[in-house]
Amino acid sequence: MKLPIIGISGTMMKDNNDMFEGYEKSYVMDDYVQAVLRAGAVPIVLPIIDSSEKVNEYAKLIDGLILTGGHDVNPLIYGEEPDVKVTEILPKRDFLDYELIKYTTELDKPILAICRGMQILNTYHGGTLYQDNSYCKTFHIKHMQVHNPDVATHTIKIEPNSVLESVLGNHAVVNSFHHQSVKGLAEGFRITAESKDGIVEAIERNSEQWCVGVQFHPEILSHKDEKMQALFNVFIGATRK
Ligand SMILES: [Mn+2]
């Protein structure tokens, strides 16, 4: 049986090594790779490119897409000027993610969107973001934990009859590294988890397409938390259908 191929959206950093100072490197965090491997699939990194036609080829090649964490989404793409609290943006990365979402969705292939991935999935479908969590009136929990990324720090409440509930149950403790969050929910989606201060922690698309977004980082927890690994297993199971 052919193993599923899972595309992991790439990002870019500048080398600070003397000899290659300023050189751009395409990469993903290895936790995504390891979580896909443990689930029995084949991970491939999808580098940032500026050709829509070639991103379409990425989408044809893969059986499922993971949208990864990182940069803030450029507020201009959801119709807002950048607020003073916005951190680093990378517009060419937004381009890659938008084209990946477009073509993967056209082909009805599963998407697991993590952190920034969930945020850009929401804006792609017409939603908006809090450019900083402090603009959410009920916000008071620490969503930017310090140190120990694989320690779960805050709770979430999960909605019944959601993919997330089928995997994690109605309650979970998650890690948290985000200063932004979903504000206006995209049409055709529902919120499937929230923290106790009302920050959106997961969304799912109401559609035939398997399309789940989480604000936390299951890939970082998955090496020691079976339920977090199970989210990847279920996602990859959906690519076989
Ligand atoms: Mn959080």
From TrEMBL:
PROSITE patterns: GATASE_TYPE_1 (PS51273). InterPro entries: Class_I_gatase-like, Peptidase_C26, PuuD-like. The keyword GTP-binding does not apply. Keywords: Glutamine amidotransferase, Transferase. GO terms for molecular function: gamma-glutamyl-gamma-aminobutyrate hydrolase activity; transferase activity. It holds the Pfam family Peptidase_C26. It comes from Acetoanaerobium sticklandii (strain ATCC 12662 / DSM 519 / JCM 1433 / CCUG 9281 / NCIMB 10654 / HF). This is Putative glutamine amidotransferase. PANTHER family: GLUTAMINE AMIDOTRANSFERASE PB2B2.05-RELATED. GO terms for biological process: polyamine catabolic process. The keyword Cell membrane does not apply. One of its GO terms (cellular component) is cytosol. It comes from the Bacteria.
